[in-house]
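Regression test case RT-17, inverse folding.

Input:
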């Protein structure tokens, strides 16, 4: 054949093209095989199918950061065992890609009402819709192996780890192969770290046994070579951009390093094998202490209040000084129970404390708690020596506390020996101001006389109380109203404490007034919510904080509704707080008697044979006259003129 002819030229061109394509294919195939051999130095050579390489995914679903921290810990453990995973926030993941995955680990938290955090709602909805859609089929994830660990609070009953359980069920419904039973961690049970560590070790063991080599997932490929499903094992650039872990109050669960479990204190299902667990875990203790808390024993705490420091320096006392005459620099703020039955949206401790419906922890002796609290409080007072404004006289007075505010955090009356603890304080002639969150009416009924007993009234309707307090109890409203009613039978001073949150509970004036008839309190404290900064656990902003003028307007309106039964008696403008008082008891000949004769109270307690209801004396027996500067409408606005007013300079940046 002559190569000058057109057909011959076309034939030669086709031959050369085919040769070029074949050479390129061989070169590419050899390169891929070389990469495969490097990634897997022990390739199968006995005629078994070749392997394809695919990196596993480690997802986290987090609201406060706890699940993210746990995922980081697991990621480090996997890497240290030669198991390479990509750490991914589920909110940035495309659910449609799940069918392409061969190995998935999920650390999932449960948020309000058993729902996932906002960032994971799209994934959760997609998973539920796919599992329920017959068109998708039950083999969508048949090539995917998975395991799920849940982070939740057992105090919420049936919704405990609902998100993790739902993920596990849905993934199995789509054909996924669960390599390990779901792990369930309880952030409030004190055993989250131990349970997660045990689950993590089992994950590593399961992955090694199931054929993971050098951090890759091994898949069977029967096409005689490495096909189009090859994935490189390069490091993900996003991994280096993950936020650094900052241990903060909002986020103290799951921060402990991995540690060995064993011996008499090994944890099983969140409980200590040698008896009741401690309320405060070592991790929580360490982080709270960094924030200035002094943890007493296994479940109590004490912390110096900023108003204690302020009055030590002669710069003014708190609202209780204006309303009731306490000496702020001689007041100790403490609690015998860091646990609570609510997770209020305005919690000024950002939900750092455990929650529970009943006492389920190791219990410390009441005498030891009081002694330890006083010792730690005095040590903190001594640290004020030499601070500008602190005189030797005030420092000496501060070292002899005369008041105890049992309201630091948590629910004090959950402590089974609360009456014994109160007796220990009264024996030392230390007055008691106890605050309860209105979920334990039987405990209120059993209380011995308290100098002043508070009940938090955070909302006036069942719906708003659930939204604001986020209670654990299903019958929270009945418990709330029963708690208010229990106040009516108390003969010592009783107080409703209202915290106003704009946009949440400030529009319920009529409903609030209807609650007055249940407990018939001596006083009603109305205070604007204190903004404690942004937090993943709280939706509040500065827009939710009322002005003092708003609090005054609300107080005047509710007093007007009482038709003279209550009047506005005092105010403390600095604290954005106003006091209503019963006129028939505490307004004598036109003068207010909201202050307390503390020495008289202690005499009454020690000299009378009181029973739990305290019938032997009542609130009018130890009242004292209110100074004019503390009365509502006074020019001082509740600021003690003996103190020196100090105003901080504000140098906020202007809004853009």
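Golden output:
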């Amino acid at each position: 054949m002559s190569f000058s002819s057109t057909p011959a030229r076309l034939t030669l061109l086709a031959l050369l093209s085919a040769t070029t394509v074949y050479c390129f294919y061989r070169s590419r195939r050899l390169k891929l095989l070389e990469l495969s051999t490097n990634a897997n130095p022990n390739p199968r050579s006995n005629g078994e199918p070749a392997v394809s390489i695919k990196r596993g995914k480690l997802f986290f679903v987090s609201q406060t950061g706890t699940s993210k921290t746990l995922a980081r810990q697991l990621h480090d453990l996997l890497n240290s065992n030669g198991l390479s995973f990509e750490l991914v926030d589920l909110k940035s993941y495309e659910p449609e890609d799940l069918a392409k995955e061969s190995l998935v680990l999920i650390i999932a938290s449960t948020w309000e009402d058993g729902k996932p955090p906002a960032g994971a709602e799209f994934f959760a909805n997609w998973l539920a819709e796919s599992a329920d859609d017959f068109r998708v089929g039950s083999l969508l994830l048949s090539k995917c192996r998975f395991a799920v660990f849940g982070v939740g609070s057992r105090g919420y009953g049936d919704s405990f780890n609902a998100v993790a359980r739902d993920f596990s069920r849905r993934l199995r419904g789509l054909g996924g192969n669960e390599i390990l039973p779901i792990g369930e961690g309880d952030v409030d049970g004190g055993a989250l770290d131990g349970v997660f560590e045990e689950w993590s070790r089992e994950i590593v063991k399961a992955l090694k046994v199931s054929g993971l080599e050098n951090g890759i997932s091994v898949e069977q490929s029967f096409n005689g070579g490495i096909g189009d499903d090859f994935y490189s094992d390069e490091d993900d650039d996003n991994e280096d951009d993950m936020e650094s872990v900052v241990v903060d109050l909002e986020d103290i669960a799951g921060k402990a390093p991995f540690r060995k479990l064993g011996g008499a204190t090994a944890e099983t299902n969140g409980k200590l094998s040698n008896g009741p667990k401690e309320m405060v875990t070592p991790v929580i203790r360490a982080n709270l202490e960094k924030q200035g808390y002094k943890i007493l024993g296994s479940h109590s705490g004490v912390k110096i209040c900023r108003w204690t420091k302020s009055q030590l320096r002669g710069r003014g006392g708190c609202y209780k000084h204006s309303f009731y005459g306490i000496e702020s620099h001689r007041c100790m703020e403490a609690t015998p129970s860091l646990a609570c039955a609510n997770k209020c949206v305005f919690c000024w401790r950002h939900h750092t404390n455990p929650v529970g419906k009943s006492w389920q922890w190791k219990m410390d002796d009441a005498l030891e708690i009081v002694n330890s609290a006083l010792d730690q409080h005095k040590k903190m007072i001594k640290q004020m020596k030499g601070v500008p404004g602190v005189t030797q006289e005030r420092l000496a007075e501060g070292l002899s506390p005369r008041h105890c505010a049992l309201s630091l955090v948590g629910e004090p009356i959950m402590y089974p020996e609360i009456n014994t603890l109160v007796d220990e304080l009264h024996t030392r002639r230390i007055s008691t101001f106890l605050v309860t969150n209105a979920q334990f009416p039987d405990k209120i009924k059993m209380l011995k006389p308290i100098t002043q007993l508070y009940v938090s009234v955070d909302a006036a309707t069942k719906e708003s109380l659930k939204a604001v307090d986020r209670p654990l109890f299903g019958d929270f409203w009945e418990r709330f109203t029963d708690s208010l009613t229990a106040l009516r039978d108390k003969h010592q001073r009783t107080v409703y404490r209202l915290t106003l949150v704009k946009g949440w509970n400030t529009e319920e004036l009529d409903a609030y007034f209807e609650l007055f008839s249940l407990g018939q309190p001596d006083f009603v404290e109305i205070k604007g919510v204190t903004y404690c900064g942004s937090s993943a656990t709280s939706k509040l902003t500065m827009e939710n904080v009322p002005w003092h003028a708003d609090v005054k307007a609300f107080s005047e309106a509710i007093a007007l509704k009482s038709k003279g039964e209550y009047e506005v008696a005092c105010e403390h403008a600095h604290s954005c707080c106003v006091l209503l008082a019963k006129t028939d008891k505490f307004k004598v000949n036109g003068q207010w008697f909201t202050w307390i004769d503390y020495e008289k109270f202690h005499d009454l307690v020690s000299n009378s044979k009181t029973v739990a209801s305290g019938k032997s004396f009542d609130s009018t027996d130890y009242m004292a006259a209110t100074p004019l500067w503390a009365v509502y409408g006074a020019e001082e606005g509740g600021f003690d003129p003996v103190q020196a007013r100090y105003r901080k300079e504000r140098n906020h940046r202007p809004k853009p």
